Amino acid sequence: MDSMFEPLHLSRRHLLQLAGTFASALPLITVRPARATPAMLASAIRNVVGEAHVQAGKVRLDIPPLVENGNTVPMTVSVDHPMTPESFVKSIHVFNEKNPQPNVANFFLAPSAGRAQVTARIRLADTQKVVAIAKLSDGSFWSATVDVIVTLAACTEEMP
Amino acid sequence: MAAALVNVPAKARRGAVIEIKTLMSHVMEPGYRHTAAGEVVPRDIITSFTCRFNGAEIFRADLYPAIAANPFLSFFTTASESGKFEFEWIGDNGFVATASAAITVE
Description:
The structure holds 2 protein chains of 2 kinds. By secondary structure, chain A is α+β, with helices and mostly antiparallel strands. Chain A has 2 domains: 2-31; 38-152, SoxY domain (Immunoglobulin-like). Chain A is built from 2 helices and 9 strands; from the N terminus they run ααβββββββββ. Chain A has helices at residues 7-31, 38-49, and strands spanning 54-56, 59-62, 66-69, 73-79, 89-96, 103-109, 117-122, 128-136, 141-152. In chain A, strands 1, 3, 5, 6, 8 and 9 form a 6-stranded mixed beta sheet that branches. In chain A, strand 5 and strand 6 (103-109) form a beta hairpin. Chain B is mainly beta. Chain B has a single domain (4-105), classed as Sandwich (Immunoglobulin-like), CATH 2.60.40. In chain B, 0% of the residues lie in helices and 53% in strands. Chain B is built from no helices and 8 strands. Chain B has strands at residues 4-7, 11-12, 17-24, 46-53, 56-63, 72-78, 83-91, 96-105. In chain B, strands 2-8-7-4-5 form a 5-stranded mixed beta sheet, with no helix packed on it. In chain B, strands 1-3-6 form a 3-stranded antiparallel beta sheet, with no helix packed on it. In chain B, strand 4 and strand 5 (56-63) form a beta hairpin. Classes of the chains: A alpha+beta, B mainly beta. At the A-B interface, strand 6 and strand 7 of A face strand 5 and strand 6 of B.
């Protein structure tokens, strides 16, 4: 019986066990990437803007630059553009780089809004870029990008 | 079960830009978390929010799992006439919740 506790014996058994766990875990990893990639971010943006050129400016994205808890991050997007029936902000789209999905939210505004500003609380799974894009009634797109450092990630914790 | 909290000014001057704040109690389970046993917790989120004023849509939002639990949304509108705001949240598993608020414009 004592021989079971020999270092060599133990390590071989552990190695086999480890190999078993690893082999069964492998398909899980390959099913889907755990997070959105910059390529997914780019294609999500393409889905919204199509072939249009996105200019930097006009949009202001307020997010704390250092977030302690990624589960609830206050975010305000405002667009420096008048809201009149002739010329207004049609929609605001928010994207992220590294959550499991690249989309955060789409907001659709009416000219009667008076002010193109929306606030929400979002989840961030990692330190990453957040992008807000505004679509104006003339068809032009404007964007703002903010880098956010997240110390406690959302979406990854286990259920109790 | 579904509890909504809506904040609209009761009175406003004609032409004033007012802020509307809404809060809906909901877990917003993103569908990416696992139990200790390794099973994926199925997605259960609110996917759509709409605000109408006297029947006309004035604000709409598509929500994704990246929206925090108990979604809070705030946005603006111009007070043009007295009337009623109607709010509607629609989500997974047949979730529907509504709320309303009246405003007097003088």
